Amino acid sequence: MHKFFVVAMMAALLPTNAMADKLEIKRWNPASMSQPKGYSQIVTVKGDHKLIKLGGKAGLYADGRIPESLEDQAKLTFENITLALKEAGAEPKDVVEIQVFIVNLANINPEPVYKAIRDYFPEGRKPVSMVIGVSALAIPALKLEINVTAAVPE
């Protein structure tokens, strides 16, 4: 076998930086949302599709104010999810999973949250979801927090 051919065959079997360059991870905090210090508002991972992870969306205004009622927090939470999805190039129809954390779930009526979830996602485009009752969230005035995963084609 020719020496050049053997070297070329071996090189083709080794991982290259070109493969790594096909994966793009972007993390950011849009100006339209609060600016946390310990985490990113949005993380996207690109490959053949773009996977969008929204961590801890809540009923929190950009200036840090928080509505008092669970119903108002649920409404604002989904407004913030919409803002974040739009920033990442997605819509509610692209959401594939949500994780819902509700404070004191055993002792409150969670119907305002459930209604907000039902009304938010288009028919036939409902994500998988889970609801978890928690004793508290990182910001004591919050009653609700939702993690979101969306995927969009490249």
Explain the overall architecture.
The chain has a six-stranded mixed beta sheet. Helix 4 (111-120) links the parallel strand 4 (95-103) and strand 5. Helices cover 29% and strands 30% of the residues. Helix 3 (70-87) runs parallel beside helix 4 (111-120). It has four helices and six strands. The radius of gyration is 21 Å and the shape is globular.
List keywords for this structure.
154 residues; 60s Ribosomal Protein L30, Chain: A; 6-stranded mixed sheet; 6 strands; disordered N terminus
Give a short overview:
This protein is of the alpha+beta class and 154 residues long.
The secondary-structure element order is HHEEEHEHEE
State the separation between the terminal residues, measured CA to CA. Answer: 42 Å
With strands numbered from the N-terminus, the spatial order across the biggest sheet is: 1-2-3-6-4-5
The shape, in one word, is: globular
**What is the name of the CATH topology?**
60s Ribosomal Protein L30, Chain: A
CATH architecture term: 2-Layer Sandwich
CATH class: Alpha Beta
Largest sheet: 6 strands, mixed
Task: Give helix % range.
Answer: 25-40%
Uncertain stretches of 5 or more adjacent residues:
1-20
Helix count, per DSSP?
Answer: 4
